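Hi W.,

Here's what went into the run:
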Amino acid sequence: MSSGAAAAAAPATVWHEATIERIVRQTPRVKSFFLRTALRPHIAGQHVDVRLTAEDGYQAQRAYSIASAPGAVRLELAIEELEEGEVSPYFHEVAREGDTFEVRGPLGGHFIWGANDGGPLLLVGGGSGVAPLMAMVRERDHLARDVPLLLVYSSRTWEDVIFRDELLRLHDKRDGFDLVLVTTRGPRGREHDHERRLDIPLLGQILAAWGHEPRHAYICGADAFVESVARALVQGGIEAAKIRTERYGGPGK
Amino acid sequence: MPTRGFSGRRPSAPVAKRLPPGQYETDDFPVLAMGPTPDVDLATWRFTLHDGPRPLASYSWDEFEALPKTRWRGDIHCVTKWSKFDTEWEGVGIDDLFAAAGVTPPTPYLLARSYDGYDTNVPVADLVGGRAMVATRYAGAPLPAEHGGPARLLVPHLYFWKSAKWLQGLRFTARDEAGFWELRGYHIYGDPWREQRYTDDP
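Here's what came out:
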């Protein structure tokens, strides 16, 4: 960390300047923003609050999950452009490299996972809800390859799979990271992926094929997706206390 | 310092007046919870008031439904930054609850406890005086499970994580004991108008 001891000691609630160092298009609707900031290190699953300020002082805030691994040099936010949005259109249509805005964090103390928490680890993501799960996938790859991890990730189409190349590359290592991609509105990309809704029977089938009993399960996505997956996992015999959820509800991301 | 090129989408003046700092209005009713929605069976549901470990009063669902009802209409504010206007709730006011139970609050603090193990602390002063209820109906219908049914706490003048879903009881505590989110980085009190989101916020 280049931020030094002073920044590391600052409370998470102080606003810091963030500079956009790089912008990478992930999918037709999602771009990753790599930020230079002096925030203290995060735990996988945490988020930051973002604050934009207009010329006349008007401000808008939104929360975005951190997709980068803990300890990564740049903080990565994967932001989906939402119609009717206020902050996401700024990121997609206005922001460019070198621009600055404010962030505070890292925030959140429940939807988090660190290498020391162990596994087996089950992650289920829908759409841009994969962002905090990606931080966990990367944390495991860096620090805990002995932990079996299954990521079940539902997208509309194969083109909408965020972090696709990186996920496929990690999966190809065959080192205990398993990946099942589900597409709800388009053909699957690989033999063992699925092109249908992620419902109870399909989840059951995927978990049976994985062959591990999850010690921790994390679900992130839209309200209805999280609700149905959480129910399916509970019905499938996973204790509710092992399941943590994070939901993206409402407009304005 | 202004963000280059950001103009924002300002709410109208009447909306802006009702929005605490950092909030935006939504028409949806987003769901937030730490885990799966628990299945709470009305046949075995009980609501209990405790003073520390000591039970003070306890109600079955039918007994609870027989208590006097109160209604409230107004705005709610979630720490995740959405606010929802003109929400309509019905339930048992905390003043009526304490009166029916013959309880004079023995301490100035309590923890609201939920069926899924969640808890959150609220000062008693923020629950009495017509400021809070145990809500059992939303928008004229039984409170849906995903929004905390059969019964949730409603303390609309604080961030909505204080309005514990799937409420099982209220426990008076000698000290102001931090609950679930309060132990995980969120503010001990949570006043949206002072933007008390996180532990270190003033």
